[in-house]
């Protein structure tokens, strides 16, 4: 989640820079258009025009690069979110299995207790029926049988 937040913060920064560069490019294009419309062959205007054309080309390249980076980061964020969701689903499934196993253990423990009670009851009946004629058997002997 920390990585996702960091990537989202980076994405927001890149988007802000993207908007800023688009604005600069538009301003440069507007100034270039204005300089072209102004009459005259002044050398300074031609130099400025060439400089602005270079800047516009550079800004376009940067914007293209930023677009690629944004798309890449967005893919990474989507993949991380998908992984988190998959992990949560796996954890929930395992929790459900654990809960089911706990319930089965509780049921088996209750059954086991009931069986012990029945065995004790049967042992007591046998001991009382046999009377004093046969030797008294220990509970463990009956349980092992």
TrEMBL record:
- Per the record, the coiled-coil ranges are 4-118
PANTHER family documented for this protein = GDOWN1, TUFTELIN
Q: What is the lineage of its organism?
A: Eukaryota, Metazoa, Chordata, Craniata, Vertebrata
Q: Tell me the protein's name.
A: TUFT1 protein
**Species in which this protein is naturally found:** Pedionomus torquatus (Plains-wanderer)
Alphabetical UniProt keywords: Coiled coil
Cell membrane as a keyword of this entry, yes or no, is: no
User: Per UniProt, what is the name of the gene that codes for the protein in this document?
Assistant: Tuft1
Entry annotated with the keyword Coiled coil: yes
**What is one cellular component GO term in this UniProt entry?**
I band
Region (Disordered) residue spans? 124-145
User: Which GO BP annotation is one of this protein's?
Assistant: intracellular signal transduction
């Amino acid at each position: 989640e920390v990585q996702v937040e960091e990537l989202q913060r980076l994405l927001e920064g890149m988007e802000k820079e993207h908007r800023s560069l688009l604005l600069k490019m538009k301003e440069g294009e507007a100034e270039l258009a204005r300089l072209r419309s102004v009459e005259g062959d002044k050398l300074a205007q031609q130099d400025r025009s060439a400089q602005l054309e270079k800047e516009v080309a550079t800004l376009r390249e940067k914007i293209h690069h930023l677009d690629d980076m944004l798309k890449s980061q967005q893919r990474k964020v989507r993949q991380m979110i998908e992984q988190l969701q998959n992990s949560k689903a796996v954890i929930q499934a395992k929790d459900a299995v654990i809960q089911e196993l706990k319930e089965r253990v509780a049921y088996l423990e209750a059954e086991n207790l009931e069986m012990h009670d029945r065995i004790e009851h049967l042992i007591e009946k046998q001991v009382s029926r046999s009377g004093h004629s046969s030797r008294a058997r220990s509970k463990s002997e009956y349980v092992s049988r």
